[in-house]
């Protein structure tokens, strides 16, 4: 068989962050610099925080840092605890493990509550471990909202419930989850919630954001891990002046400002629906190709779909064919999942047509590598999801909501 490859190439970025950024957001980065100690910057920062708060589900302060998501997690940890603090970490994949590594690097005494890869954290297991801690030795619980390495989303409402009685501080990595589903930091009672610009917010990388509860600020006043750049006390002091302690990534803030305006113009519920719909379409397409979804039923992420590589092809060959011959960039597995899974993101300035195109490209890439594929099966599965949205996944159960603002 001959597979025709066009000379004209367009690249479709389908990795789970950084994600495709819409043109008006990119264009905002070409604006001239402003004084980061002046009124225009204060106004910019205020607008960004005000638009982030409803997405985080909080009325609390949100501080921004010139850093990637990892910097946000590090800042949250070093600012909140003292060396030797006992923490209970609940990783469900690579990024949860990174949270453990950061805490250990600063001398915290971290106990790990293990979860098999592909599963969500069991709220019952968390609750019973915390109940067993009668003398309240555990000072903090480290949670991941959405685990990008396995395509798993934890049920944050249930996890909040599981931690409530114990009263330890709760730190949440929501780098790849925030904005893609309903999140209620205040109602659920989380203390520090970290996200980053380059995922659901669909802005370029470079900005971390941390929302902090009153309890978090109280702990920060007592914390003793030495820090400088990442000392959130300084961030708070300067935030009250409409500034950041250090020179901020002004261009990224310009971009995020526009990205957040677009988020709210689309409407949070539409944004959640869009991510859920794309994720369902991709899962249906993968399943049609015999690619087993890696996340357990009930634990699927809306922002990234992970699936086993089909028989008869290596992950490397599949990713290479997709990238070089078809212009579609997917991610592979990380650490022990390297070579075993492929991951496809749903975030960013991505249309339904892009999703369908990428799925079609996947079919051709598999065929090119002699993997048996029923031509059109995956595209059809994705298309069916777009044509007939599942009523349960439909917004508020409304009828007639058939398309999303980002659909094409
Ligand atoms: N946590 C999660 C869940 C992530 O997905 C990522 C990045 O993909 C990070 C943390 C680290 O963020 P960054 O790469 O921006 O440092």
Short recap of the structure:
The protein is of the alpha/beta class. 41% of the residues lie in helices and 13% in strands. The chain has helices at residues 23-28, 39-56, 69-80, 94-105, 123-132, 156-164, 185-188, 214-222, 232-239, 250-266, 268-288, 315-326, 352-368, 377-387; strands at 12-13, 61-66, 86-89, 109-112, 140-144, 146-147, 152-153, 169-173, 192-196, 207-212, 304-308, 328-329, 331-332, 341-345.
**Assembly state:** single chain
CA-based shape: globular
Q: How many E strands?
A: 14
Span between N and C termini?
A: 32 Å
Helix content: 40-55%
Low-confidence stretches: 395-408
Strand content: 5-15%
User: How large is the radius of gyration?
Assistant: 21 Å
Order of helices and strands: EHHEHEHEHEEEHEHEEHHHHEHEEEHH
Q: List the total number of helices.
A: 14
- Helix/strand-derived category reads alpha/beta
| Major beta sheet summary | 7 strands, mixed
**How are the strands of the biggest sheet laid out side by side?**
2-10-9-8-5-3-4
List bound small molecules: pyridoxal-5'-phosphate
On the 0 to 100 scale, the average pLDDT is: 94
Description:
The chain has helices at residues 23-28, 39-56, 69-80, 94-105, 123-132, 156-164, 185-188, 214-222, 232-239, 250-266, 268-288, 315-326, 352-368, 377-387, and strands at residues 12-13, 61-66, 86-89, 109-112, 140-144, 146-147, 152-153, 169-173, 192-196, 207-212, 304-308, 328-329, 331-332, 341-345. A hairpin with a 4-residue loop joins strand 6 (146-147) and strand 7. It is α/β, with parallel strands linked by helices and 408 residues long. The strands form 4 sheets. It has a 7-stranded mixed beta sheet with strand order 2-10-9-8-5-3-4, with helices on both faces. Mean pLDDT is 94; it is low at 395-408. The chain contains 14 helices and 14 strands. The longest helix has 21 residues, at 268-288. Helix 3 crosses helix 4 (94-105). It is 41% helix and 13% strand. The protein is globular, with a radius of gyration of 21 Å. Bound molecules: pyridoxal-5'-phosphate. Residues 17, 68-70, 95, 144, 146, 148, 173, 175-176, 196, 205 line the site of pyridoxal-5'-phosphate.
């Amino acid at each position: 068989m001959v597979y025709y490859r066009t000379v004209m190439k367009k690249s479709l970025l389908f990795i789970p962050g950084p994600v495709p950024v819409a043109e008006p957001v990119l264009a905002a980065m070409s604006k001239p610099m402003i004084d980061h100690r002046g009124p225009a910057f204060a106004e910019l920062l205020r607008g960004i925080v005000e638009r982030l708060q409803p997405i985080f589900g909080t009325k609390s302060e949100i501080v921004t840092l010139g850093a990637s998501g990892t910097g946000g997690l590090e800042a949250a940890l070093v600012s909140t605890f003292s060396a030797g603090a006992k923490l209970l970490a609940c990783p469900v994949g690579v990024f949860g493990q990174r949270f453990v590594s950061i805490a250990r690097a600063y001398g915290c005494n971290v106990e790990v509550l293990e979860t098999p890869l592909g599963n969500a954290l069991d709220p019952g297991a968390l609750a019973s471990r915390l109940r067993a801690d009668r003398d309240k030795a555990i000072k903090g619980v480290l949670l991941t909202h959405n685990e990008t390495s396995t395509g798993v989303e934890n049920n944050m409402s249930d996890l909040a419930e599981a931690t409530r009685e114990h009263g330890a501080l709760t730190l949440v990595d929501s780098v790849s989850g925030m904005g893609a589903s309903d999140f209620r930091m205040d109602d659920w009672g989380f203390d520090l919630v970290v996200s980053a610009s380059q995922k659901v917010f669909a802005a370029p990388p470079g900005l971390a954001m941390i929302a902090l509860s009153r309890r978090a600020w109280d702990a920060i006043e007592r914390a003793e891990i030495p820090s400088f750049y990442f000392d959130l006390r300084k961030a708070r002091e300067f935030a009250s002046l409409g500034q950041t302690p250090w020179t901020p990534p002004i261009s990224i803030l310009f971009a995020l400002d526009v990205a957040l305006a677009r988020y709210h113009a689309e409407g949070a519920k539409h944004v959640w629906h869009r991510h859920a719909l794309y994720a369902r379409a991709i899962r249906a397409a993968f399943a049609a190709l015999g690619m087993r979804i890696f996340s357990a039923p009930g634990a699927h992420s809306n922002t990234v779909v992970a699936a086993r590589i089909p028989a008869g092809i290596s992950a490397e060959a599949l990713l290479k064919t997709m990238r070089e011959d078809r212009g579609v960039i997917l991610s592979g597995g990380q650490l022990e999942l390297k070579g075993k899974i492929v991951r496809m993101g749903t975030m960013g300035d991505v249309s339904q047509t892009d999703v369908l195109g990428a799925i079609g490209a996947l079919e051709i890439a598999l065929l090119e590598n002699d993997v048996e594929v029923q031509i059109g099966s995956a595209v059809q599965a994705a298309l069916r999801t777009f044509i007939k949205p599942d009523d349960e996944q439909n917004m508020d159960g409304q009828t007639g909501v058939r398309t999303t603002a980002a659909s094409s």
